[in-house]
Amino acid sequence: MTNRRRLLAGVAGGGSLALLAACHQKWKLDPQDIDMRGHLPDLAFTMTDAETGKTVTAADYLGRIVILYFGYTNCPDVCPLTLYEMTKILKSLGAKAGDVRFLFVTVDPLRDTLPVLAKYIGLYHTPEFVGLRGTHAELQALASRFHAGFSVHPSSNPADYTVTHTAAAYVFNRHGKAEFICAGLSAKAPDIAGITRDLRHLVETDRV
Question: What angle do CA 47, 123, 201 make, to 5 degrees?
Answer without folding.
Answer: 70
